[in-house]
């Protein structure tokens, strides 16, 4: 019986491929968690502004209160833009990382598949 001389190497490649796939899964999970946190932050920001508007509705005739509310709304809009910007940056970074891991995984598969079977 002929021993497959490449089986150990194929096993090492398979383990490396599996590790890359697990890293890709972990990145996807982390991305979802971070996006959930950003969504929650954005929601809380909007709730806070809405609550502030409710509290100041009765005093809308006061110019000082109106200016404060405009300032609060401006800050809230700024926070929302920061969250959107962070979401875009994270999407790009996660996408780039997953692409790099996938390219490495594919290269490892090609190398593993090129090994002789006898």
Provide a descriptive summary of the structure in words.
The chain is built from two helices and no strands. The protein starts with 6 loop residues before the first helix and ends in a 5-residue tail after the last helix. The protein has one domain (7-111). The chain has helices at 7-56, 63-113. It is 86% helix and 0% strand. The protein has 118 residues and is mainly α. The longest helix has 51 residues, at 63-113. It is rod-shaped and about 90 Å long. Helix 1 (7-56) packs antiparallel against helix 2 (63-113).
What characteristics describe this protein?
118 residues, mainly alpha, 86% helix
* SSE class: mainly alpha
Subunit arrangement of the protein: single chain
H-E order: HH
| Helical amount | over 70%
Largest sheet descriptor? none
Q: Please provide the count of β strands.
A: 0
**What distance separates the N and C termini?**
11 Å
Q: How many structural domains?
A: 1
Mean pLDDT: 90
The outline comes out as rod-shaped
Topology:
Elements lengths: L6 H50 L6 H51 L5
Give a quick rundown of the structure.
The chain is mainly alpha-helical and 118 residues long. Helix content is 86%, strand content 0%.
């Amino acid at each position: 019986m002929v021993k497959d001389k490449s089986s150990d190497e194929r096993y090492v490649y398979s383990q490396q491929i599996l590790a890359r796939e697990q890293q890709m899964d972990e990145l996807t999970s982390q991305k979802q968690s971070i996006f959930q946190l950003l969504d929650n932050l954005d929601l809380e920001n909007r709730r806070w502004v809405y609550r502030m508007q409710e509290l100041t509705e009765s005093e809308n005739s006061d110019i000082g209160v109106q200016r404060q509310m405009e300032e609060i709304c401006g800050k809230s809009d700024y926070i929302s833009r920061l969250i959107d910007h962070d979401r875009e940056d994270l999407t790009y970074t996660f996408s780039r990382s997953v692409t790099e891991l996938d390219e490495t995984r594919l290269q490892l598969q090609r190398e593993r598949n090129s090994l002789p079977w006898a």
